[in-house]
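The protein record quoted in full:
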Amino acid sequence: MTKLMLRALAGETLPTPPIWMMRQAGRYLPEYRATRAKAGDFLSLCYNPDLAAEVTLQPIRRYGFDAAILFADILLLPQALGADLWFVTGEGPRLSTISGPEDMRGLKGKDDIHEHLAPVYETVRILSRELPSETTLIGFAGAPWTVATYMIAGRSTPDQRPAHALREGDPRCFDVLMDLLTESTIEYLSMQIEAGAEVVKLFDSWAGSLKGAAFAKYALEPAKRIISALKERHPGIPIIAFPREAGEGYVGFAKATGADCLAIDNSVSATWAAEHLQGDSCIQGNLASRHMVTGGQDLIDETRAIVEALKNGPHIFNLGHGITPDADPENVQLMIDTVRGV
């Protein structure tokens, strides 16, 4: 029988939605922390196929999620393009910065990324062999706008101001960077699919800071290009788009880009999504990740409300954002049991 996740992505309305969780392999799990300590640091874990596959498998063994998402990071692609990348403990990623055309000259082309990313593809191959037969394997990449914000600022920023400044101050340079990232993302995801990914997801974590015409040009259009190219190369591959905090920009996004599924954050309600979005595609989401910390009856009630709101169309249950390191693993089990009516 076809995997539940793939059935939902094909547009089937199921009595119980498949479930997985963004960042399900992560610091909230003691087994993850032990494996990361063994690897030495975060990037060493990402580039060690055996250990990256192990942490991907850990939440599947513990919880029996319907899908596993490749353990990697969206910033491996800019590193493959030639950016310097390192992680500061307790603060997150740091990159060399792109501030103008002179910085672009040091970057590689889209066809020169694969040697650097070969360990990621090997992780996918290991997982395609080792995952349970009922579990769907998801590959992923960051969307061009979100990756560009990190490459321009050199780190995460609260309002993506450096990227907006370059976009407005030197649009030619910015467009060259966006084009490089769009084409490189196509190559990266295509290789993940060839290695065994059954679904791919495009994370546009900072899409919400783009408004109006800028959202259409830098969030919607790159997603459309990537999805169109992947579907031309790999007919039938399901693709999930996540333009986080897009608000009204979610409306029509799946239809315009060709995405099979639209992931939504918890700034919009499941009821609203059922009315305005679910007619176009499968919907993924959208429990607030804070419930994984606080648990209790509120978690149960909100989980049931989301399942109820989206029950009349294709739905994949997930959080509205990634699970946080302070989450309680027992609350994850409570969420799963509630979705599945255990």
Observations:
- The first strand starts at residue 67 and ends at 69.
- The CA atoms of residues 167 and 174 lie 5 Å apart.
